[in-house]
Structure formats: C-alpha cells, structure tokens
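Example 5.3 — Acetyltransferase (GNAT) domain-containing protein
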Amino acid sequence: MKHLRETPWDKRNFNMDTFEVTGTREEALQETNKYNGHYTLKIGPLESPELLLKYGFYYMDTLIEPVCKKENLHLFDKDATSITKDYNPSEIILIAEESFKHGRFHRDFNIPNSMADTRYMNWVKDLQEKDQIYALMYEDDTAGFFAYEDDKVLLLGIKEEYRSRGLAKAFTSQGCAEQFKHGHNELRTSISAANVASLNLFYSLGFRLMNTVDVYHKVTGPGV
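Solution (predicted structure tokens):
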C-alpha cells in the first residue's frame, strides 16, 4: 500500500478495513479502488476536488485548526469550577455518550450512528488509559472532561445540565493552562466549521486560525 495508511483505531468500530489516503495524485486515488474499506482523505480548501469525486469520494467536513501561543492564553475564572485527574471513569464515558452527536462520522451516511457513537466511546477510553483526560468539576459534581495529547486539545465534553451556564470558558482555559505546564509553547486544536459555538469558545481563549482542511470520505466494496 504505497499511498494508504491503515487506521486500526477506526477498523475496530466499523467492522471493515479503514484507511487514510496520504496523497491526492491519481495514483493514490486509484489505490483506493483495490481494497474494500472506508477511506479518509484531507485536502487544502483551494485544491480542486474533481479527481476525488471521479474516484467516488464525497465531501464530509471542513476542519478549522486554530493555534494559541502560551502568552496569549486568556484565563477565565468561575466560582466552584476546577479540574482534576481524580475522577470516576464511568462518569466521563456517560458524558462522552451525549456530547458527540454531530461529528463527521455521525454525518457519514455510510456509517450507522451507533458505530459512530462507539468510535467516540472507544477514543475516550483510550485517552483515559493514557492519562490524557481531566475531569471538569462543578462543586463536587463531574460536569465534563477535557482530553488532550501532547500539544493538541482533542475533545471537550460538558454534561447537558451544565451547558449554557457560562462554564465552558473557565473549564477549557483551565485545561489549556495545565497542558501548557507540560512544556509546550503553543497549543492547537481541530474544529468542524459547522461547530460555531466551539470556534467562538477557542477564539475567546486566544486561539487564532492557522489552517483549514477539507475532509472527504469514500467506501469501496459492500460497506458496513
């Protein structure tokens, strides 16, 4: 597989082989016809998708990738909020289950929603095992979680009853501040262009747009 990278973390959820395509040349696209499975391909927004459409790819999402330098992080305080790594893992899983209903795999008509749910649940479990999650606490209750890896902010989930209460800025800025303590000079994240609330949140914390990519999917063979 010259132009394909297997993604076993997705294969375990979708009951078929899964791949990332590493280039947009026709040689790479031809390779996606050789193996049954689900494919993800990311391109710059100014690149023409003509060849992708010819080979059966379909547009899935646009990801905006903001970056925040350490000195530009805006911290927000909110009474009774804190973060901790001392939490009940099952509570985090329950919050994750209700937090990710509009991801690109939920929008993919070739992936059942139940499988998209499983993908996020397994991802959160993996991050728990790697100690890359902070629980977001409101008083003594687990109100959400903040997941990261190295310099990347990966996931933010807040329990439904705590949404729209002005807590997201405090929780997220506290998570970023802890992440900066690991020695990073800047943090980055990836947000769907459709997720305006999340874009506004990270902009308020000091993140600024650095890159944008369009995401395409394809299924070769019988699918799920």
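Remark. The chain is about 30% helix and 30% strand.
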